[in-house]
Each structure stands twice: as C-alpha cells, then as structure tokens.
Amino acid sequence: MNPSHGHGQTLAEKILGRAGGLDRVVPGQIVEGKVDLAMMHEQGAQTVGPFHQMGAEKVWDPERVVIAIDHWVPASTEGAAILHRILRKFAAETHLPHFYDVGNHGICHQILAENGWVVPGDLAVGTDSHTNMLGAMGAVAAGIGPTEMAAVLALGELWLKVPPTLQVRVRGRFGRGVTAKDLVLRILGEIKTTGATYKAVEFSGPTIERLSMPERFTICNMTTEMGAKTGMVAPDQTTFDYLAPIAKHAMHPLRPDSDAHYERTLDIDVEGMPPMVACPYSPDNVRPLPDVVKEHVKVDQVFLGSCTNARIEDLREGAAMMKGHKVASGVRFIVSPASTKIYQQCLEEGIIETFTTAGAVFTNSSCSACFGGNMGILAPDEVCASSSNRNFPGRMGAKEARIYLLSPTATVAAAIRGELADPRDLM
Amino acid sequence: MKDVIEGRVWVLGADVDTDQIISGKYLTIIDPNELKKHVFEIALPEFAAEAHAGDIIVADENFACGSSREHAPQAMRAIGVGAVVADSFARIFYRNSINLGIPTVEVRGVRKIFEKGDTARIEMSAGRVTNLRTGAFVTFPPLPPHLLHLLEVGGLVEKVRVELERRRTAVGTPP
C-alpha cells in the first residue's frame, strides 16, 4: 500500500503513448490511439449495421482484424446461425481473411493468444469483456462494444482515457495444488469487483516472473472482474519464447520505468496460501476453499472450461487427477477445451479418453457452459463448481442457481467427490 | 441532447451486472424492439412491461459490470430511457451507452436520494441531479467536452459518419 511517487511511466502509459504517437502521457489524458489488433466474436454481427450507417466503405486494415466465433459453435439456435451468417458475409464483402470459422474455431481470446495475434506494445481491442487476457503479452488489451468496434474498423483508432495503474506485486511460491487461478481469486477478494474500475492492473514480482504464459493469461483474464480496462504483465523472456514462433506482427517491447507512478500498490505473498473459491453471487465473494469444503456443498454440475482456464495445461492437470476416478453419481461434468488446437492435443494425449471414461462430457471447443446461453444450463437452485470467471445471478442459467468459481483441479476434485473438495486431498 | 432531463425514476442496487440486464439466453437477438421485452428481467422483472419513454435509471455502484454486451444499452434505448445515472459504472457499459447517445452520468451518492417512482431532474451542464419530490440533490463534475460532443451529435455512428465525410472531402480537395 505504498504508492510509488516517481516521475516515470507505467507499462499502460508507455503503450498508450506509443499508440497515440506521444512521448509521454498522464492518467486522465485522452489519447486517440492507433489500434494494432481488432477482434470480433458473434457480437461483431452488431458491428455491421453501425459500420454501414457510418458510411464506411472499407476496413482500415484487414490484416489487423480477427473474427473468431465462439459462443454458439456450431450454431445451436437459428438466431446464432444468423449472427454467424452476417459475419461471414461481412468478412467476404470487406475482404477480411482471418476468420476462425467452425472447424478451425476456439474461444476468441485463446485464438488470439495461440496464433500470436497480440504482441508486446500492442493496443488491442475486442468485442468481448475478457479481451483483458491478452494484456499478458505486455499489451494494452481491452473490451469494447460493437458500435465502437464499427468506428475502429472504419478509422483504425479509438479514444481512450489513460488509466491510472494499480500495481500488484506478488512474491512467494505456490504450494501444492495452488494455482494462478487461486491467486487471482484472492486478489479479487481483496480489492473487490470495483477495485480496479477504469484502471490498468500491472502484475509484477518474482512469482509473476516465474509464471508461464497460460498462467499469466488466467490472471490477466480476471482483471475484467475487477473492473479493469486491462490487466498486464511486462514482456520478458517467457513472453518472447512463447511468441517467437507465432508472432503475427512486429513486437515493440516496452517495460514500466523503475520510478513509475502507481496509483496504488498491492503486495501479495502466496507462501502458505490455500486454494481459493469465489462463492455465489459475486467473483469477489472469495474464501479459502478448505473453509467452504467443511460446509459440504453438494454440486449438480461441474464445468472445466472457459477463456480463464481451459488451456492444455489446465486440462492435463485435471486429467491427471481424474485418472482412476469416476465422476460422482448424480453429477454432470462438462469439459470444454478453449480451442480446436487444444482439443486435438487432448485427443493425442489421451485426455479425452480419461475424462469420458470417468463419465464426463468432453465437448467441442467453445465458451460452452460459461455464459448460460448455449449448453450446460443450470436449473433453479442447482449448484455448479466452475473454472470460469463469473458467478453473478443468472450467469449460467436460472437466477437462483449457485456457481462456485475454482481452479481447474478443484473443479475435478468436486466432480469426483460430488461436493466441493480440496484438490490437495486427491493429489 | 437536452440540457435538462426530467423523468420518472427506477432504482437499482450495486453490482447489477449485464447478465441481470439482458440474460445470456437473449444474446442472439439483434432487433432492439425484441430485446427491450427482456431488459432487466433478472434485476427488475416488472420494468419491461411498465417502463415508459423518458424514464430514468438510477443505480448504485458498478452499474452494468460484466460482459461487453451492447444489448443492454440497446434495449434501454429501444424503451426510450431518458438517462442512466449511477454512483459508478463499469467501463464498457459507460462507453457503449454514451456511444448510443444515451445521457450516462456518474454521480457519487445519487442512489441514496431516490426511491422508485420519484421524479429526477438532471442538469447536464450545471452538473446537478435533483429529486423533485424531496428537493434533495447531488452534484457532479460535468462530462468532459469530447463526451458531451458525442451525446450532442447523437452518438458515435453520427460522429464517425461526419468524420469519414470530412476525410473524403479533404482527400478530394486539391492542395
């Protein structure tokens, strides 16, 4: 809680300065930023109308636009089929080559990550709130609405208020069975859902430096639940190694100044931290999982998926725990990989066999049960243990349903036991 | 946009997220006139049937947090909501709502001076929200010029249309 009062710039300030062609920017300043990457999912269908109403004739740079459908893949309703058709037609008419359509699909943020669409120094925007995840590349990545996206497609720029930065410094080593998800839940529990509203969250410290890119994706992903404009990690060798074979455009690696001015600094020590859980009905209603386990919370459904936690590492760890166990009687366990590529890896590594033999449903890659509009929908009063990111009323179906947010292995533990369980007891 | 906006008030609590405004099951609906039948279905079930054009939403902190779905302000615009005022907003909703031309104002302490059915008067340039039943009021810093401009021209579509027109004309003009 000791804000640094230096005169240097934070990572977000440096990137927005670059995007605006300015040497120096300060929080509160409005910047007209050039966009390096624009991403649309199904909500992009609502971009088409405003784009034409604006009188736009072409997209500013088709090489900087990615469309990745993910909420209803393949289309599960006529309405979804129409959204997909609108996007396909728009992509054809405006010559957008980078369309991740059915068969080559995945959750939009994972598509951006695993194909190197966002690189250090970028200003990236997407029509999904969890676009924040891509800030893990050392970028400013933020969610916007479809009308705003129409303006971006037409002009290649958008206005942004330079946010103040919340610095989160993390030290200590994770104990067995404790993950990046537990860390981000703990931070949410401390700063709450408004703790970073309009702010950039910059993660640093020895623990963050040791995290893999997938782990950094998980923590930056849930800065959305803190209200943040973006969550970010300064680029380092881990970033460069991840991106070297896949980067789609030139990197402009920027790092915060050592005397950067942070609005607030939060110091976290993860030494001895137990697994965490966000209880209904808010992602900031966070408690140590062992305390909640004592209350014997029975579950009807378990979901291992979403942009937060459905990468190959998450599914590997989950499968390792699942092996030799069965899904508890009366529990529905849904596993949904974050992309087709991850699906194929699961097939090769026997992960699909492990889960399906145990009695889980292994679905095609999509947002799946996370958002309550496609599959895995909860009935009133049902309880779900989920590796996803939100548990507000009605998020996964009925408003009375209760959702507990957990790490991937903690969801598997719940599937095996039929109630919330400490994953360390099954390792 | 009118400088003084008056309307009947609906009140909402803190952390009303976009799922409670337009539920995930309606996200494939594009027609705002269909969407408006479901607006606030979870947070305020009677709203869709009873709201009138010109009504004002008054909410507590972190209004419309959650997803980026523009369906939420689109449905409110289809109903004809006159303004949305809250102690604080989630950032994507705030941008979406202003981009659609809905007067959207952050006013610290506003929720606690209103009850459902009161009449609110919002003075945009003076920076004041008054409860006309009780006389209680709270002040706010007027919106920054670029946001006021967006609202005055009627939203982002119109602003960009004019900008593209200007650029085309500029390109066509000999040096």
Largest sheet of chain A: 5 strands, parallel
Which pair of chains has the greatest number of interface residues, and how are they split between the two chains? A-B, 49 and 42 residues
Physical arrangement of strands within the biggest beta sheet of chain B: 4-3-2-1-5-6-7
What is the number of independent domains of chain A?
2
Radius of gyration of chain B: 17 Å
* Structural class by helix and strand composition of chain A: alpha/beta
Order of helices and strands of chain B: EHHHEHEHEEEEHH
Mean pLDDT of chain B: 94
Shape of chain A: globular
Write down the CATH topology of the largest domain in chain A.
Aconitase, domain 3
Q: What is the general shape of chain B?
A: globular
**Termini separation of chain B:** 37 Å
CATH architecture of chain B: Alpha-Beta Barrel
Please state the CA-atom Rg of chain A, rounded to the nearest Å.
21 Å
The CATH class label of the largest domain in chain A is: Alpha Beta
Summarize this structure briefly.
Chain A is α/β, with parallel strands linked by helices. Helices cover 30% and strands 17% of the residues of chain A.
Layout of SSEs?
The complex is a heterodimer of chains A (427) and B (175).
Chain A (H helix, E strand, L loop, with lengths): L10 H10 L9 E5 L2 E4 L4 H9 L11 E4 L9 H16 L5 E2 L7 H7 L8 E4 L13 E4 L2 H10 L1 E5 L3 E7 L8 H12 L8 E5 L1 H5 L2 H9 L8 E4 L3 H7 L20 E6 L6 E3 L7 E3 H5 L7 E4 L7 H11 L9 E4 L4 H9 L2 H8 L2 E2 L20 E4 L15 E4 L2 H10 L10
Parallel strand pairs in A: 2-3, 2-5, 3-4, 5-6, 8-9, 8-11, 9-10, 14-15, 14-17, 15-16, 17-18
Antiparallel strand pairs in A: 1-7, 12-13
Helix pairs in contact in A: 2-5, 6-8, 11-13, 11-14
Chain B lengths: L3 E9 L5 H4 L10 H4 L11 H4 L5 E4 L11 H9 L3 E4 L4 H9 L4 E3 L12 E5 L4 E4 L5 E3 L5 H8 L3 H17 L3
Parallel strand pairs in B: 1-2, 2-3, 3-4
Antiparallel strand pairs in B: 1-5, 5-6, 6-7
